[in-house]
Amino acid sequence: MKKTTIAAGAISAIAAALAILAKSKEKTVERNTLRAARFRQPRRVLIVGATSAIAQEAAKEFAADGDKLFLVARNADKLQVVANDLSVRGAAQMETAVLDVNDTDRHAEVLARAADSLGGLDVALIAHGTLSDQPACEKDVSLTLREMQTNFLSVVSLLTLLANRFEAQRHGTIAVISSVAGDRGRKSNYVYGAAKAGVTAFLSGLRGRLDAAGVRVITIKPGMVDTPMTAHLEKGALFASAEAVGKGVYRAIVSGQEVVYLPWFWWVIMTVLRHVPESIFKKLSF
Fold first, then answer.
1. CATH no. of 2-281
2. Whose C-alpha in 2, 151, 174, 213 is 20 to 30 A from the C-alpha of 54?
3. Of the residues 190, 192, 250, 261, which is catalytic?
4. In the predicted model, what is the mean pLDDT of the chain?
C-alpha cells in the first residue's frame, strides 16, 4: 500500500510541475494559431454534444472567428441558450438540431441537415459523452451496455457517416473528444475507459483510411476537467478548466494535430502509466 501511495503521489507532483510549464507553452501556441486562423473564409463547423462545457468553450473560439456553426445536443432549452450566446459572440451563421445520440437511426438525417444548411461541412467535432458510474455498472449489465452505447457505439455511427461524406469531398477535419482514461484500464473507471479506448482505436484506423483523401482525423485526450460532469469529484492539481481544454480543442483543430493530450502534460503521465508493470498497476488506488 505504501509503494502505491508513493507512486500516485509522484505522478501528482510531476503533473503539478508540468502544469506550470504548460501555461506558458499554451499561450504561445494560442497566439500563433489565432493569428493564422483569422485570415480566411468562414469554416462550416458541426458540433455534436454542443452543450457540454468543453464543446461550448471550443465553440466560442469558432464563433469569434466568424465561422458558421451547426450545433447538436439533446436538451433543446440548453441548446438554444448556447446558440444565442454564440451568435452574440460573432458566429456568421447559427443552426441547431435536437438529437439523442443514442437514436442512431436519426444520425444520417441530422448530418445531412447540417451539411445542407451550412452549404457543406469543413469541421466536425464530436464532444458528447457521459462519465460512467463504475460501481453501478459493475452491478447492472444494462447500464454498462448503455454507457458503451453512448460513449462508443454512437460515436462509431457518427464517424462512419462523417467519414464517408468527408472522403467523398476529399477535404475537412474530424475531431473527437476521447480521454486519457482510454490509454489504460483502471479499476476505478474501466467501463468508461474501455469505451474511450474503443474510440481511440477506431480513430486511429480511420485516420489511416482518410489520409489519402486529405481528411484530417484528430483524437483529443483530455485529462480530468472541471465541468458539471465531474462536479461530484474532489478537485486536485490535475484538474484543468473547461475553458483551457476547450481552447486546446480549438487549437488542435485549426493547427491540424492528430493526437492531442490536454493539457499536454498528460502525455508524460500516460506514457509513464502505460509502462508500469501490471503487477504494480493493479494495486494502485486510483
1. 3.40.50.720
2. 213
3. 192
4. 88
